[in-house]
Every structure is written in C-alpha cells, then in structure tokens.
C-alpha cells in the first residue's frame, strides 16, 4: 500500500511537472515543439512583455518564465512587468507576484530580497517595501547595508523623499548599519531629484567625517541637482571640491553637465562646453552626442542636431539605437520626411527599427509628399523585420494612394 502511494505521488508530481512545462512553453513560445532553455525563456518573456497590455497575461508570462533576478535579462523583464502593471493600475497583481517571488525557496537571499524591495519602490508600494525589509528576520535572512540601500532607493523611486530622509536618519542607529558610499550616493540622488540639492553639503560633510570618499557618481548627482535648480555657483563649488579630492574631471562628469544644460534648453551652451572639451584633447562618447542631439531636437534646431550626428560619425563613433530613434521621430515631427527616411535607412542598416508610431508617421508623411513607393518599401521592410503589428501595417498600406 505504501509502495502504491509512493508511486501515485511520483506519477502526480510528474504530471504536474509536465503541465507546468507545457503551460510555460505554450505561453512563451506556442509554435515550438522543443523545450526552451532558461535564456530562451527570458528572451521570449521580454519580447512578449514589451507589447502585452493585459495584466493577467503579463503575470502569466512572468510566471511561465520563472524569472530570477540573478540573470540580467530577467532583471529587465521584472522591471518591465512592474512598470506595465503600474501603468495599468494593477497593484494587486504586483503585490501577489512580488509576494510569490519573496517566498520562492530559490530566491531566499539578501541579494534577491533587496531587488524585490527596489521593485516595490518602482511600483510606488513603499509600505510593502518596508514590510519586506522588516520581515527579513522571519525569513531567516540577515539585513546589511545592502538592504538599507535598497530601501532608500525604493523611497527615491517612489518619490517619497521625506521617508528616504527618515530611513537614512533612523535606520542605521536602529539596525546597527554603517552607511557606505552607495548609501550616501542614493541619498544625494534623492535630495537632488527632490529640489533640495543644497542638502548635499551636509551629506558630503558627513562622508568626510566618516572617511567615505565621494566618487564621480556622487559629484555627478550633485552637479545635476544644482543645474536643475539653476544654481551655477554651486556647480562651480562641486567642480572645485572634486579637485580637492584629486579627482580628474572625466567625460562622465562633462556628460552630466552637457545633459543638464540641454534639459534647461541651453543646448548652444552645451555645445560650447563640448568644443572646449575637444580642444583640450578629451574624447567625447556616444552619450555626449546623444544628449546634444536630443537637446537640439527638443529646441527645434534640427539642422544643428543633424550636424551633431555627422560630427559623431566623423569622429569614428557608432550611433546607438536611441540616437537614431530620436532623429527619425523629430525629423518626422518637423515634416522633413526625406531626411527622416535617410536616417531610418541608416538605422535599419545597423539592425534597428523605431517604434510603430514613429514609423507610421514616416510612412504617412512620405505618402503626403507623393513618395508612395518609398512608403510601401518601408512597410515591407518593417513587416519583414518585426512580426508584430502586421495587420495594422496591412491596413495602413491599403489606405495609401494607389
């Protein structure tokens, strides 16, 4: 009898395993007959999540992929799923999914729990983030500065800066934590994002007292915060302070300054800063030009944006997808469809296609200037490259002038 029960248990467990395997495969890759590897599951999940708008289906995709924050792809998938569910106001789904994740035996470690605390913050569910932090002891997981930093970052993501300040002031004493560089950097970021950049002076003083040396990220956040509040004198003070720490002002710091100026619609000043950098022999990177291209596009100066793109290419740098997407989008917005088409062709040659709404704008724009053959060619290329939205493209093609 015992042997029979044991056999039945084995058959049942095998049956459940088969069902789980079947459902995962049917959700993530219904056309495939062979089982998916872990990486294939992650890739399939990420692709599906990008276009999925049904909250239950988003959860089914995540569960089918058995996501784990250990994998970079899975971390992106987790974040994408939480963002989508938040946009859909499906907070009960976020709660149940993250609750499941925190109770999975394979994910019971401080590293993974810290990641879930951050995801709660991303969803704006700060009470759940704090509860998870408080319950770690019950889970048998020791809290360290890593978890403290995760909770502080959750506060910043949730834009609850008052709570960030409270956690920073109270928790180190309460739990015996010693704030480290990451702790201070998160708090600096929070103060600068919240319009309280002047508070960083007291944080930098505390760091000095505790022998914690600020890094490029610390000063980058400070500089960004002061630019945002248009406190240019304080930007200068930060640059002087960097010299005091014998820190070389590298391209990452200049990129923060250039991006900040562009956000203030001072792209001309940002370009002058770039010219100064280049004249001193420092090399700009893709991010430098990307900030300037976006800045000039937003200010409606498309000629300067195109000039920056050419300068980047001439200097031997390879534009990234975001750079192409920005230019195609804004060229369409300014109704320069021929220039947008040329930029799209370069983008396609590098293996990227802008999103559906940008491409629709390009196709309809080309048709409006009697370039119907080019519009049809673009539709054919997009359909070949991306299997999504094929029916929508067929309808758009059908509506083009004959």
Automatic annotation (TrEMBL):
Family stated for the protein in its record: Belongs to the PPR family. P subfamily.
First and last residues of every PPR repeat: 109-143, 180-214, 250-284, 285-319, 320-354
Protein name: Pentatricopeptide repeat-containing protein
Superkingdom, taxonomy of origin: Eukaryota
Lineage, uppermost ranks: Eukaryota, Viridiplantae, Streptophyta, Embryophyta, Tracheophyta
Keywords carried by this UniProt record: Repeat
Any matching Pfam family: PPR_2
Keyword Repeat in record: yes
Keyword Repeat assigned: yes
Protein source organism: Solanum tuberosum
Stored SUPFAM superfamilies: TPR-like (SSF48452)
């Amino acid at each position: 009898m015992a042997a029979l029960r044991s056999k039945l248990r084995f058959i049942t467990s095998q049956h459940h395993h088969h069902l789980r395997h079947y459902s995962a495969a049917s959700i993530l890759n219904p056309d495939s007959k062979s089982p998916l590897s872990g990486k294939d599951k992650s890739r399939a999940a990420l692709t599906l999540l990008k276009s999925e708008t049904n909250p239950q289906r988003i959860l089914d995709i995540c569960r089918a992929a058995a996501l784990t924050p250990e994998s970079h792809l899975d971390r992106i998938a987790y974040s994408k799923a939480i963002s989508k569910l938040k946009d859909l106001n499906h907070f009960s789904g976020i709660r149940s999914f993250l609750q499941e994740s925190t109770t999975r035996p394979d994910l019971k470690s401080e590293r993974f729990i810290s990641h879930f605390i951050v995801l709660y913050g991303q969803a704006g569910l700060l009470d759940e983030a704090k509860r998870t932090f408080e319950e770690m002891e019950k889970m048998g997981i020791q809290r360290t500065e890593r978890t403290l930093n995760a909770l502080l970052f959750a506060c910043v993501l949730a834009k609850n800066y008052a709570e960030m300040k409270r956690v920073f002031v109270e928790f180190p004493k309460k739990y015996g934590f010693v704030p480290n560089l990451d702790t201070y950097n998160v708090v600096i970021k929070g103060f600068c994002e919240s319009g309280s950049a002047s508070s960083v002076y007291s944080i930098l003083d505390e760091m000095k007292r505790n022998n914690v040396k600020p890094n490029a990220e610390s000063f980058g956040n400070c500089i960004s915060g002061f630019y945002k509040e248009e406190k240019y004198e304080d930007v200068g003070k930060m640059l002087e302070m960097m010299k005091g720490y014998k820190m070389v002002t590298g391209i990452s710091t200049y990129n923060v300054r250039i991006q900040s100026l562009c956000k203030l619609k001072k792209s001309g000043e940002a370009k002058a800063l770039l010219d100064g950098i280049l004249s001193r022999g420092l090399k700009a990177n893709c991010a430098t030009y990307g900030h300037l291209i976006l800045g000039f596009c937003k200010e409606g100066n498309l000629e300067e944006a195109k000039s920056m793109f050419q300068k980047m290419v001439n200097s031997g740098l390879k534009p990234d997808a975001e750079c192409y997407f920005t230019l195609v989008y804004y060229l369409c917005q300014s109704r320069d469809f021929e220039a947008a088409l040329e930029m799209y062709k370069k983008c396609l040659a590098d293996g990227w296609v802008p999103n559906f709404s940008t491409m629709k704008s390009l196709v309809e724009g080309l048709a409006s200037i009697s370039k119907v053959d080019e519009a049809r060619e673009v539709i054919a290329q997009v359909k070949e490259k991306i299997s999504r939205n094929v029916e929508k493209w067929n309808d758009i093609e059908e509506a083009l002038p004959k």
